[in-house]
Amino acid sequence: MTEAGQVLDIPFADAFAFDPSPTWAAIRESDRPVVRVRTLTGSHVWLATRYDHVRLILSDPRFSRAAVVADGAPRAGVSRPLSNTLPTTDPPEHTRLRRLVSGVFAPRRVEALRPAIRELAGRLADDVAAAGQGADLRQLFALPLPIQVICSMLGVPYADREAFREWTELAYSMEVSERARVESAMGSLVGYMTDLVVRKRIAYRRGAHGSVAVAGAATKASHDADAVTARGGDTDAVTNTVTNAVTDTDAVADADTGVVGNTATDGVAADDTVAATGTVTTAVAGTDTVGTAVADTDAVESAVAGGIRDSAHDHAEDTGGDLLDELCRTALTDDELVAFALNLLVAGHETSANQITSFVATLLRDPALWDRLVRDPGLLPSAVEELMRVTRLSDVGQLRIAKQDVELGGVTVRAGEGVMASIGAANRDPRVFPDPDTVRLDRAPNPHLALGVGIHFCLGAQLARIELGEALSVLINRFPRLRPARPIEDLAWRRVLVSGLAELPVLP
Ligand code: HEM
């Protein structure tokens, strides 16, 4: 469909709408299904659209994820991905990191969270009912559900959600004109997580008997991160600075508390950029011990969330803590811990929140689908898989860098070149999925790639399936006659890397 040698801009001009751009299918069905595209930061990369090619790119070790964070590497979005996370490492680093968390996210362990997630979904459905006609299902239901779950599992205060949501939205923006704000938001996210990690690591070393002075030291870390961000430094600079602060703090915490107090106070007084991150600073200053910090959530984090935390960590009775507490005890460096935790926080809510919204929107767009699920809830497991297949999370693709020359769909991807695997396009490949644009709630088999494949297969796959299944189950029971308050096609789509509807007003 493209002229030989023509380079398309990605995201395509008609991206960020409910239906995928027709360009995806046109490339996939052409005789040149792997094409050159230019990302919004000007990187030239290959784009793969067919199922077999996408599957290969995601799972073949000749394609690297670690290389996407190298200097000068092509980029899919505006922000630079954080190093040292699961999605940005190759073996053996990836294997080491994944082993640290695979137990907590193992299907059997996660299954134990189901009752608490169901109860939480029920409470959030109450909020939707209370809001009445026009209630925004995304704000009231789809966002708080996974945020509360991942906050509880990780040990991130739910009370901080407004702040980290705002930063996440900006940090992964696909508006290239927003570059300065994007970098600043990424710096804020890193600073926020550093505060948390500092407090937890110090508490671990002190046996959870922190002091105001210790909390002050954490504020110093936040201050340093903010100062770097305010100077327009890039994410790596921020990470390095906060990491140094973490390391310094660790060292001082082992020494004399008074010294820590002075250092922290000087640091805070010297620069009022700290005030710019009110939430972080307040959270730190108001917290004397980690125990308080973890418990310092607002009334919304209820016994339900406590149930999630208890179920997730019943294996760790000796700590009584959460996943972050556990990771603090590992040999992860401070750098790794901050990036790792941030990745889990963002990947753990952004994805499911979008998918819950998109699932409901897809069903309501053709109310016969909603009504069928209401009549036959036994279809829920296959419906979840089918809805994962048809709803896309990204209007670009998963980026990898070729480590050697690879023949792919009639082109040679040269070593060092970037290649994007479009899961959304692959999931509608008619070679694998008959009648791919039709939603069949009972489709079987359904070997979709929505959760990836290979060593980077979604860590939260089972958690996501439970959240999505329980969310739909609660909604069809509570609101059997649910309808959209506005035509689905008219609803705005968020221009971010992990994309989806900006709102979903409904008539409950
Ligand atoms: C419907 C919801 C979700 C979808 C569609 C989804 C999708 C994906 C996909 C496609 C990948 C592979 C990316 C690649 O190979 O480049 C992935 C990886 C990942 N996902 Fe999910 N995800 C979802 C929910 C979650 C949740 C709830 C978590 C919770 C922590 C999570 C954590 C991760 C992590 C950490 C990775 C990286 C794994 C690795 O590189 O080893 N995801 N996800």
Overview of the structural elements:
The protein has a domain of 204 residues. The protein has 21 helices and eleven strands. The strands form three sheets. The protein has a six-stranded mixed beta sheet, with helices on one face. The protein starts with 7 loop residues before the first strand and ends with a strand. About 20% of the residues have low confidence.
What secondary-structure arrangement, pairings included, does this model have?
Layout: E1 8-9, H1 22-28, E2 34-38, E3 44-48, H2 51-59, E4 63-64, H3 93-102, H4 107-111, H5 114-131, E5 135-136, H6 137-142, H7 144-154, H8 161-171, H9 179-206, H10 212-230, H11 235-254, H12 257-270, H13 278-285, H14 290-295, H15 303-312, H16 323-328, H17 334-365, H18 367-375, H19 380-390, E6 398-402, E7 406-408, E8 411-413, E9 418-421, H20 423-426, H21 461-478, E10 483-484, E11 505-507
Parallel strand pairs: 1-2, 3-9
Antiparallel strand pairs: 2-3, 4-6, 5-11, 6-9, 7-8, 10-11
Helix pairs in contact: 5-15, 5-21, 7-15, 7-17, 8-9, 9-10, 9-11, 9-17, 10-11, 10-12, 10-13, 11-17, 17-18, 17-21, 19-21
The structure holds protoporphyrin IX containing FE.
GO molecular function, one term: iron ion binding
Organism: Saccharothrix violaceirubra
InterPro entries: Cyt_P450, Cyt_P450_B, Cyt_P450_sf
